[in-house]
Prior knowledge:
The protein has helices spanning 55-64, 78-81, 96-113, 139-147, 169-177, 181-192, 201-244, 274-285, and strands at 36-37, 40-41, 84-89, 119-124, 251-257, 287-293. By secondary structure, it is of the alpha/beta class. The strands form 2 sheets. It has a 4-stranded parallel β-sheet with strand order 4-3-5-6, with helices on both faces. Strands 1-2 form a two-stranded antiparallel ribbon. It is elongated and about 85 Å long.
Amino acid sequence: xxxxxxxxxxxxxxxxxxxxxxxxxxxxxxxxxxxxxxxxxxxxxxxxxxxxxxxxxxxxxxxxxxxxxxxxxxxxxxxxxxxxxxxxxxxxxxxxxxxxxxxxxxxxxxxxxxxxxxxxxxxxxxxxxxxxxxxxxxxxxxxxxxxxxxxxxxxxxxxxxxxxxxxxxxxxxxxxxxxxxxxxxxxxxxxxxxxxxxxxxxxxxxxxxxxxxxxxxxxxxxxxxxxxxxxxxxxxxxxxxxxxxxxxxxxxxxxxxxxxxxxxxxxxxxxxxxxxxxxxxxxxxxxxxxxxxxxxxx
Length: 298
């Protein structure tokens, strides 16, 4: 007899219910929902009430809406208050000042915002945190993990000989994709300034062709270096998402970085679909990712 095997992955999703006046409907149970796939009813494997924000946030919202500012004795179950939170520090793209601001932000969360039963993990793109990169409710372990986050020198460098025409990654991408010919002409002109004077018109043409090759090679070298650093960041994030997928329920992830080019040209070691695969992996793991520009942390 033939045997047919079908694999199905657990699908996690969030649902918010509002009435006709736009007010949130609370107190719903699993029995109040019906799930259908292709028109057929499917049982709901697990159901939990997720409360966003800390207790202080909810009291502040209640006070602003003119509601009661005290907590009733019938508090919800502990599971509804628990959160699974990941802080992913892209230390490959963090300046020294941004690392200090991220330290302060993380310690402030651990000391003031972390609730009882919250599971928190601090991870980094470079992997310097080591075995402390784990989900825990122990604040001392989290403080030790934060202490391991340091500045990782950025290794992308320009091999150009003209100090007056330093090339950034964005400029290199503009040259590689030929988006703006004025940028390309600027760097070719800067290169030709270093050529000796007194050459004939034909010799100047040969020098220009040589400068064109140099500018293109500079741009490709910069983009290849930047793509390698970004690929390592993506790999660390994907590894973290696979680890988070083992945790039940919904998860919050905060991606902290100074920013980087997600597209580093056609020769980049990073595939154009890489970010889409990471987003799909986050959906499967039940992770909602928020990005934070570390340069704006106060």
